[in-house]
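Listing 4. Sequential folding, example run.
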Amino acid sequence: MGTSLTGKNISTTYLGLLKTTDNAVIGSTAKRLTDGNGTDSPLYLSTSKLGIGVTPTEALTISSGNIQLSNDNKIQFGTSDVYISGTTSTDNIQLGIQGATKLTLHQTTGLTLAQYGGGTITGTVTQRLGVTSAGQVVEIPIGGGAVDGSGTAGKITKWTDSDTIGDSIMSESGSTISIVDTLKINATTGDSLLQFNITGDTYSMGIDNSDEDKFKLAYGVFGSTDLLAIDVDGNSIFSGKITINKESSSALTISNPSATNDYLLIGHDASLNSLYTSRAENSYGTHTFRQWDGSTTRNILTLDASQNATFEGDVNIGSGGTDSNDKRLLINSGDGAGGEAYINLQRNGANNFLLNATATNTQIRNVANLPLLFYTNNDIRQTISADGNTTFAGNVLLSGYLSVTSNNIGTGATRWIGSDGTTSTWFYNVPTGGNHYFAVNNSNQLSINENNSTFAGDISLPDSKKAIFGTGNDLQI
């Protein structure tokens, strides 16, 4: 504490002496200091407080004006462990703790922490700091807690646990987002889908929850223009054409996954330039084309393993009308030994009629023991019986000769025209009283019976010929 002025000499003018205003001693209540002439100073002083320009309420109270420290000086608390230091060389303020700078406020580069990342000070963070447009530092709710972790450039971040981030299976490069392995879209309600949009055209792909969870590809939204729908049983419905296009060959394959090489293939082979079906390496299989009328399934065409085709209805070639193109039914066998091409008409599985071509001839054969009938205008015109007899319903017109060699033309053994195949020809009529008639213009010109020959007109002979009557040349003309 200070000492009294007892026994000391003081200037007679007292002008340079600082004293309390009331000239009394300093106590607990601060008093203003004046000089010996009574001029007030800005200092207020008590035994425990100092005020500058104001009666102090704290140990040091300043009403206005600045506190200025020389360059690199400190405001120090206690020893040098805690301080505030300013430096004009780098224009910053430093806060020191335990004798070392912990925080630096820079004029141009902001805030710098002297130490971080040690992990020795931990706790639960409930707020984070942000800066408003006015430069105000404010608190922001931190949400789920502090976030840490690391990642790879180009990778899209995911949560690896409740407060850690890391790499996901998605990455971004330019305008492309790539996903490794599986993209899974879950929807608790409504549709689960992907949508693609470009220049106003939208395509949707996914599960239509409102239509029995069918997987769909649609133009627009589901239910508007569905292009493909697949139900849970694997049935597929296409709303348009299916085009399979490949330069060398293309095919649509329908397979049985439980049987090796058991499949139906419909395709186009560039070397054959044809449409074909195949069940490769499966000789016992058949192909059946069926028709469904809403209640019954009917077979239309069956192809068996032996290359036989069975139609259940009519087979039409060509549509008629104004079509001028030729239409043909071509049956072409190979030229190997025994190879035949034929049309086989069956009734109840039994062969009735064959039209076939062999290596040496063409045949029309009635295999069953039945007559063969030929119709025109829905009337029988020719009948060939099972034993080979032929009956014509009308005239038989010949543009050439009727040649009979070692065979007869007639009805059995009673009436016939025959030849022995060498020099003799017969007109034969066995019944007694029967006649042979030779007619011209539907009028009989010669009638021959067993006793007489009657001519309806004159008999003309060449000049060098004569008529002989009797066996002994009894009469000659």
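-- end of first protein; second protein begins --
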Amino acid sequence: MIPALLPQLLVRIGAAGILLCFATLALAGGDDWKPVPGHIATRWAKDVSPANCHPEYPRPQMRRREWQSLNGLWDYAVTPIEAPKPSKWDGKILVPFPIESSLSGVGRRVDEKSTLTYRHTLHIPEAWSGHPVLLHFGAVDWHATVSLGGSVLAEHRGGYDGFTVNLGRLDPGRAYDLVVRVEDATGDGQARGKQWREPNGIWFTSTTGIWQSVWMEPVPVESIADLKLTPDIDSGRLRVAATIAGMEPATVVEAVALDAGAVVARASAPAGAALNVAIPHPKLWSPDHPFLYDLRVGLFRNGRLVDQVESYFGMRKIALGKDASGITRLMLNNKVLFQVGQLDQGFWPDGIYTAPTDEALRWDIEETKRYGFNMARKHVKIEPDRWYYWCDKLGLLVWQDMPSTQELADSVPATRHTVLWRNQFEHELDRMIEGRFNHPSIVVWVVFNEGWGQFDTERLVSRVRQLDPSRLIDAASGWHDRRVGDLVDMHKYPGPASYPPEANRASVLGEFGGIGHGVAGHSWSPALWGDPSRSGEELAADYETLLRRVYDLRDTAGLSACVYCELVDVEIEQAGLVTCDRDVEKMPVRRIAAANRGRFHY
């Protein structure tokens, strides 16, 4: 074993030559932060710095004006899992980039026998004096223990759901040591999606530790803790359910809907009761017209405003229905809409699970739309809220997968170990739905992918239906169909193909395609897929052939949606329309966009 303090030589041979990466502790940490060299990067990597690291408010649908980002340089240490705490710090890490990533400044893997510990010093603004302070984590992978001043305040298990720690009232005149200890086996039964300890094939670099924004905000003792927004276009109403912390009798919640700053509707009710906000002549949200209303929710006590948050919502409806021929179809706002999507895996060569910047997140959605897709299937990963915000804002339908696990399938004997992990999976499934419920872009929940860890399908579909009757459910995208949910879903490579639609289930093609083509100098791996001499026009002709068959299946076999694999290359996979550094469009956009809309180049 090479001692930890010696340089670690990473060698990668590519078309551009040999890249040598000497990753030392000195390079990884210290105030002179810089990305770890050795892999390709996106154009947005140059915009990342400790002083400007995801500075946007992380929760667009429940905003407060007073808040403080904690993204930036933190101390870090990797120690044996049995060690009670670090005896020294290894250096600095740039939060919220996972430790495995280049943009973290570390570029190091943490195995199941180690603990990753973070430390950051909190300073409370004078204006927050006397107010409870909430500390928010967008996501930490996987088991996090949060301490302040040596006292453990919270533990959280789960790699994708946000959590909040109430720090209580803190003294603005003091400095507080915040410590976050993380364990992550990336195995056993964790919901982990495509993460893998030893990346290869379709399995990609794992993410450990903090990988979404960390921030804090002061709140009143009596405050709005959560919002649940449910649009109903048939009745022209928005249902608003506000969860209140520290609720007192006679507290009132008021919701005000606005269009370009003008009030269009308001409603109020006692705290704890749902509000129905009547929206006159509602403007409907769709991919072509992604109209969003602003929403202001206030908490009143004896007529005095004690808390207020700002939000937004879209009036839209997703459902099954029959077309003129009696075929079961996907309906958006009571009209048939053929959904053409791309498989979106959400990996970045420089940030792994974390996009370099908010602009990079937006670019992926804009690129999806430029290519003529009206939908993305977010594949076995849950993104930060701001990704869904851009889908809401720009108009992109989302099928949201539950991150998969590989060890919990029905065929695995039910032991105490598997029961605990299945309970954890169900808990994280609940948290996914609760945490992303308000985004109008999300129209389908996908419970399982290709039978990976598939168990208790019928019961879990019923559970999802109970939590959210307003959206459609894909019980299992590909492979093991248990005849429940709203979609009958086939995966076919290269395809396309489809199952017949059913009386109560629409037929969809959850994955197909995969035209492999690597581009030298823009690929994660030096081994390139496909014939490098083929032109973009030749590749586009192949794509058009696939989409002609898709549209034939729509017209003759009742197909209602398709998901092409994929928009961007991911590490070893080079099946994207765009390279993984987002720098080269492999096929002409005009032809792909036309094909996705059913118009073909001859």
